[in-house]
Amino acid sequence: MTKNRSKQRIQIFLEKKERAKLEEVLEETFFLGYPVFFRSNFMGRLVSLFEKDMLQLKGMMLMHVNERFIKDHFRNVGGEPEGKQPCNSWVAYLTSSPVIAMILEGKGAVNKVHDLTSNREKGQKNGIFWNFGGPTAYSSNTSSLAAEDIKRWFHEDKEKWLSESSSTDKLIFLRSNGVDGEPVGPWQMAYDLLKKNIFYADRSTVVVIKPRAFRERCVGRILSAVEDNSYGLRGLKLVKKADCPRSGGVWSDSDKSDDCAVAVAVDFLFPLFGETPDIMSIDFESGKYQIGSDYLYRSTDFWRDIQVFFPYGVTLWTDSTCQCLYGEMFEPSLIGLWEQTK
């Protein structure tokens, strides 16, 4: 009996030691927030939680996925989530609205993020990662799976995808022609739909959360302020200076090529800007916001900045099984949708 207890104690000690060792390793992990974060304007709150846990954003996209893509995802991670499923099925739910995909980096990131998202008790306590009897997010549970997930969700778009998608009746892109700012595209119905919708260029803008916010860990607070003071987000993408050389006003000369910013396409944004560049005062309780230009860039030319940060323009897609039109989003990538063309 004594020998067995000693073995158990040694085993527990070794497991704790191994876990402590893993927590000291700087690593990347993958996180997927389900549509509830987009629908509830909780994306800024989500980013703030990760910033508080000393996790760095290395990739982020608000994106649509089609049925084939999400089924492949479930197959690769070992099945659908446990817990109560929303809507008719998990597949239907995750394809109904945009999901938020992230690459997070930090010490012990895989275990830290997975513990947050998979622990029912913790998830219910923080009110983010478990809701209505089911999980609200997925995260990789091993380093090897994280690498696979990141490759699947964040690989480069292929040049042929745009031409393939443009020739199909399942995807439509309304892009600026660069002359008068009017969007162009093959579907008159979709064009008319967007013109009648409150979401359109004359009531929309592009804002960019600048690198200083990353250094001071207030990206989530600024994003929450944007969510609280608009009719909704229509595009979200983490960008790097090296990838957006034409984005004047976002980067300073001292910013490095791999410094990050967050580009956001916003529908009807109310004033948020402070009088001085370096002011950053956000009071959610009183609803008073003062964000200086050192932290937040606001576009003066909507279609120009859309072309820089969201080159596919407004993306709409159809589901041939029900003949519905989805989207009206500035997709940062075609990764989750391109197979819809087949």
TrEMBL record:
Record-linked Pfam families? NDK (PF00334)
Asked if Kinase is a keyword of the record, the answer is yes
Question: Kinase as a keyword?
Answer: yes
Domain Nucleoside diphosphate kinase-like, first and last residues per copy:
26-161
Q: Which UniProt keywords apply?
A: Kinase, Transferase
UniProt-listed Enzyme Commission number(s): 2.7.4.6
The record's comment on protein family reads: Belongs to the NDK family.
- PANTHER family per the record? NUCLEOSIDE DIPHOSPHATE KINASE
Q: What is the protein name stated in its UniProt record?
A: nucleoside-diphosphate kinase
Lineage start? Eukaryota, Viridiplantae, Streptophyta, Embryophyta, Tracheophyta
